[in-house]
Structures are given as C-alpha cells and as structure tokens.
TrEMBL record, chain A:
Stretches assigned to the ABC transmembrane type-1 domain: 90-288
Major location (coarse): membrane
Gene Ontology process terms (BP): transmembrane transport
Topological relation to the membrane, as annotated: Multi-pass membrane protein
Protein name: Carbohydrate ABC transporter membrane protein 2, CUT1 family
Keywords, comma-separated and alphabetical: Cell membrane, Membrane, Transmembrane, Transmembrane helix, Transport
UniProt entry tagged with the keyword Signal: no
Similarity annotation: Belongs to the binding-protein-dependent transport system permease family.
Automatic annotation (TrEMBL), chain B:
Family named by the database record: Belongs to the binding-protein-dependent transport system permease family.
GO biological process annotation, one example: transmembrane transport
Protein name: Carbohydrate ABC transporter membrane protein 1, CUT1 family (TC 3.A.1.1.-)
Domain (ABC transmembrane type-1): residue spans on this chain: 95-304
Organism annotation: Nocardioides terrae
Keyword Transmembrane: yes
Transmembrane parts of this sequence: 6-27, 39-61, 99-119, 131-151, 182-204, 225-247, 285-305
One annotated Gene Ontology cellular component of this protein: plasma membrane
Length: 303, 313
C-alpha cells in the first residue's frame, strides 16, 4: 500500500505546486497590469516635460520612441527668469508651508500635554468638543472666516505680512483638532510615573513639558509634521479662498491650476511645472514613508 | 513683495509665535499653588481655545445661520436656499454628479486596492509594487489632474491614441456628459487606490497564520481563499477604507476645478460651494451647500469612527 500511495501523494503535491505556479503567474500578470496602468500617466508627463515645445503641442509623448528629441528648455523656463517662471510660487509654497506646520504642531503639543497631565475644570467636555470638531468640513467655516479676516484687516496686499497671515491662520486652525487628538493619544503612552516622579522632585509643568515630554514626543511630532506638510503643500482650496486670488502670495498649486485652466501659449510648460511641484512631496514621501503611512489612516477623516 | 521679504515674513511669524508662547510659559512656570496650576492650564490651552473658537466653532455656527438667510445676508428666508439646491436644474445635476462620485470612487478604489494588495502580498517586489501605486497619494490633486489632462488631451493624449488604434475613433473626452464625470472620477480612483492598498495590505498581513494554514490543509486556495478567508477576515478594515474614501470624495474640489473648471456639467458639491460662495457671491446658497456637505459627511464619519475602534481592538 505505502509503495503505491507514496508516488500518488507526490503526484498530488506536484500538481498542487504547478497549480500554485500557474495562479502565481496569473497573479503576477494582474499585479503587473495594475502597476503599469498606475504608472503610465505619470511616466507620460515626465517624458513630456523633457520634450521641445513644438513636439508637445503636436504629438503624444510615446513618439519619443521613434523620434527621440529631448531638451531642458521647459525646466529652464519654469525655474529661470522667464515670464512664466514658477520660482516665485515655489518660494510662496515654502513661505506658506513652514509656519503652517510649525505653529499648529507647537500649539497642539501644548494642548495635548494639558489634556494628558494637567487638571482643570471641564477637561473631558473640552476634549470631546475638540475631538468632535475634527469632523467639521473646512467648507463650513470659510465664508464667515474670510469675512472675519477682512474685518480684522488681515486680508489683502496691504495687510501685515502681505496677506500671508490669513493662510497661515486658516491652516493652523484646520490642523488643530486632529493634531491634538493624535498627539494626545501618543502622550498617553508615556508612563505616568515618569511625570509623577518629576513632579515629586519639584519640577513644574513648564519644565516637565520642555525637558521631558517634548523630547519623548519627537517621533509622534515628526509623523504629524509630515502629514501636515503634505496637506499644506498640496492644498488648493485654502490658498484660493484666503489668498484672495492675489498671485503675490499664491502657492504652486494655484499657479499650476491657473496655467492648466487657460491652455494658452504657455500650456507646454505645464508638464515641467507640474513636475517641479511634485518633487518636494515625493522627496518627503520617499524619504519618510514609514511615518507617513502610520499617520495616514488616522488623518483620513480630517476636515 | 520680494522673495527675501516673503521669507523674512515667515521667519518673523515663527519668531513672534515662539516669543509670545515663551513669555507666557516663563511667566507661569513659577506658579505652584492650586490657582497656579489653573493659570498654567489656561496658558497651555489658550492658543488652542482661541484659534478653534474663533476660527472653527464660530464660523461653523455662523455658516449654519447664513444658510437660512438670503444671498446678501439681509433677510431670513427659511429653507429656500436648500429648496433651490434640490430644484434648480443645474444644482440637481451637481447632486447627481456628487452621487456618482460618492458611489463609484470608494467602491472601485477599494476594489482595485484590495485586489492589488492580495496579488503582491509576499511577492518579491512587494515593497516597490506598493510604493508605485501609493505615489499618487503624496502629490497634489492639482498635479494629479494635470497628469491626467495630458492623458485625456484631444490631440496628444494617449486615450485618443488608444481608441484610434482600436478603431473606436477620437473623441472630445472632457466635453460630453456624463462620460466626462466618469473620467474625472478615474483620476480620484487613481489617487485613492494606493491608500486602500497600503491600509488593506497591513490588514491582510495581520490575518492569523493558523486560519490560513487550516484553510490550506482543507484544500482551499486561490479565489476561494480570497472569498472565504481573506475578505471576511479584513471586513472591518474594508469598511474603514470605504468610509474614509467616501468622506474625502464628498469634499473633492481640486480635480473638477483643474480639469474642467466645472464646465460641461461636471460640477460637484464642494466645487459648487466654492463657485457660489466666492465667485458668484451667493453667500446664502454657498452656506447651504457647505451645510449639506457637512450633513452628508456626518453619518459616514460616525460610522467610520465606530468601525475604526473595532479595528484598533
């Protein structure tokens, strides 16, 4: 019996592996098709951005296979001193993004500390209220907020900071509920004895916050900083509404959206311009992917 | 302003911010009494309460009020703005488009993400494969729209080249409704599928190996494994992904503005809100559209949060 059974089992095992290999091959095929579909549009734009103006306007990017001709002119025009230069908007994006990341995160870290380690009346009510504010879509706040900025004299070219304050403030406000909630979660993982013993040793809240908590929170702060950076850098709505259409303070996204809408003589520069705007978030993403994915789900319901 | 002045402004605001916060913290740091603790709490929370109160809570309430007023904020008009949304033919079109977006995007993006996550699971190229599909998530929706504008372009787009090759002719893809809305939805599916892949992939890896091994011993594999083991095991995560994409879809604005500018019957709620509020100065109607977004998002968010709790456990 065993003599006959053994080859049979082997045969079954062999057919099993061949079936697996077959399904593996189909699986690889399927994965490959999706990967190609997802990559081709971006690859097309990348190729386009290196083609001469006439080629971009007259033929598709895949023609480079038969008629290869490449140039850096588009990037020179977009980054250099031409009338279509995007460098101003590039700088604007940084001017908007850096304070709009640093300020809300600092405020949120302080608030998260207060909710975690301080005692004051209405603590829980206040925390639940902030948690609930996460779900307010930013659209719901925009009309009155803009009116408020105008009334306060913060909007417009003559305003302090050339009008940047409206954008900084808005991004800060919209970041706070989620930032406080996430940082509070991380902070609750710090052992309470650590804070207690520091208190017994006579350290005040400010000392504990600056010397003990902030250093421990660095990974969490970094994770949220990356999310906030990408949100602000990629934002169009806030910049459009609160920038008041003033190109002097508009970020890259607004400049590109305008360029894309007109389809004028400078249409061919759009591909290079788009790639310039993609470089920064892609670098951040590829460099710090680990942090990004962690915060992603938590941030998915952000207003 | 020159570039230098702009950068200076950024430095000034940051310095100003830290100076103010620093002074407050130093002033309150010496307090040790019970009252002192209260004052310290206030110092830690004051910026938050001020910003959220003035920048979020007050405007939100104000918008709800405004949605019942006329477009000049002069007269109470009850539910008239909402009636307009549901009766004006252009706005009904907007509602239908939004419904298309909200139904199609989450389902297709999650489906593609799930299939892809399963297919590349434990393969040699898993990391690269996932990074590829996830990249669109990191770029701006304006960037994504431009990438696809080149795909849909009448003369030089690859879509027309493909349909032409297969004898289906060339088309003005973005001009004819409702096909153009579907093409815009494709862009957002392209962006969101990576999100679904990454989150679902993590969840697939968390399925206990003994369940998978037991199923394998019973001769389950391939499609049946997917149908009876994988999908039921990650059901809560699937719902979280579906609802999360639904929420972002309801607020999508950049794609419509960049690709068609809301023309050719492609407008959606979030875009219409922007147009009515800030272009046409119909502030009452704009406010009503914003409130409608909020009302639609609310139940999805609540469901999402309850499911997220389940996943976390």
């Amino acid at each position: 019996m065993t003599v006959i059974d053994a080859p049979l089992e082997k045969l079954e095992a062999a057919s099993e592996t061949s079936r697996n290999e077959l399904s593996n091959r189909w699986a690889s095929m399927g994965a490959l098709i999706i990967a190609v579909l997802w990559t081709v549009p971006t690859a097309g734009l990348l190729v386009t951005s290196f083609r001469p103006e006439d080629d971009i306007n007259s033929s598709g990017w895949w023609n480079v296979i038969t008629h290869p001709s490449f140039t850096f002119d588009n990037y020179k025009a977009v980054l250099g001193g031409s009338q279509y230069s995007l460098t101003d908007f590039f700088v604007n994006s940084f001017v908007i993004t850096i304070p709009a990341v640093i300020i809300p995160i600092s405020i949120a870290t302080m608030a998260a500390y207060a909710f975690a380690w301080m005692s004051f009346p209405l603590k829980n009510t206040l925390f639940i209220l902030i948690f609930a504010l996460q779900i307010v879509p930013i659209q719901v706040t925009m009309i009155p907020l803009l009116k408020l900025y105008v009334d306060l004299g913060l909007a417009g070219n003559d305003a302090p900071g050339g009008g940047f304050y409206t954008i900084w403030l808005s991004h800060s406000v919209f970041a706070l509920p989620l930032a406080i909630y996430l940082l509070h979660n991380f902070m609750m993982e710090i052992p309470g004895e650590l804070v207690e013993s520091a208190r017994v040793d006579g350290a005040g809240h400010v000392q504990i916050f600056m010397r003990l908590i902030v250093p421990l929170m660095v990974p969490a702060i970094a994770a949220f900083a990356i999310l906030q950076f990408l949100w602000v850098w990629n934002d169009l709505l806030v910049a459009l509404v609160f920038g008041g259409g003033s190109l002097d303070i508009s970020p890259l996204t607004v400049a590109l959206a305008n360029l894309s809408g007109t389809r004028g003589a400078d249409w061919y520069l759009l591909s290079a311009g788009a790639f310039v705007s993609l470089v920064v978030p892609l670098a951040v993403f590829l460099g710090l992917q680990r942090f990004f994915v962690r915060g992603l789900l938590a941030g998915s319901v952000k207003g | 302003m020159s570039l230098g002045e702009k950068l200076l402004q950024a430095v000034i605001i940051i310095a100003l911010f830290f100076a103010v916060v620093g002074v407050i913290l130093v002033l309150t740091s010496k307090l040790r009494s019970r009252l002192g603790e209260l004052i310290q709490s206030a110092a830690f929370l004051l910026p938050t309460i001020l910003l959220l109160g003035v920048g979020l809570l007050y405007p939100a309430i104000s918008t709800v009020r405004l949605s019942f007023r006329n477009n000049f904020d002069k007269l109470w008009i009850g539910f008239d703005n909402y009636k307009t949304i549901f009766t004006d033919s252009d706005l009904v079109r907007v509602l239908i488009n939004t419904a298309l977006w909200v139904i199609i995007t989450p389902i297709v993006a999650t489906f593609v993400g799930l299939i892809y996550a399963v297919l590349v699971d434990r393969s040699r190229f898993e990391k690269t494969a996932k990074a590829l599909i996830f990249l669109p998530m990191a770029i701006s929706l304006v960037g994504a729209s431009i990438i696809w504008k080149f795909v849909y372009d009448d003369n030089t787009g690859i879509l027309n080249a493909i349909t032409d090759t297969f004898g289906l002719g060339r088309h003005h893809w973005l001009l004819s409704s409702p096909g153009n809305t579907l093409l815009l939805i494709v862009i957002f599916v392209w962006v969101q599928a990576g999100f679904a892949t990454v989150v679902l992939s993590a969840s697939i890896k968390a399925i206990p190996t003994d369940i998978v091994e037991a199923a394998k011993l019973d001769g389950v594999s391939g499609v049946r494994m997917f149908r009876y083991i994988t999908v039921p095991s990650i059901r809560p995560t699937l719902i979280v992904v579906l609802t999360a994409i639904t929420i972002t879809t309801l607020k999508v604005f950049d794609i419509v503005r960049t690709v068609t500018g809301g023309n050719f019957k492609t407008s959606v709620l979030a875009y219409e809100f922007y147009v009515q509020s800030f272009r046409s100065a119909n502030r009452g109607l704009g406010a009503a559209l914003a409130v409608l977004i909020f009302v639609l998002v609310l139940p999805v968010v609540i469901y999402n949060v309850t499911q997220m709790r389940k996943v976390a456990r």
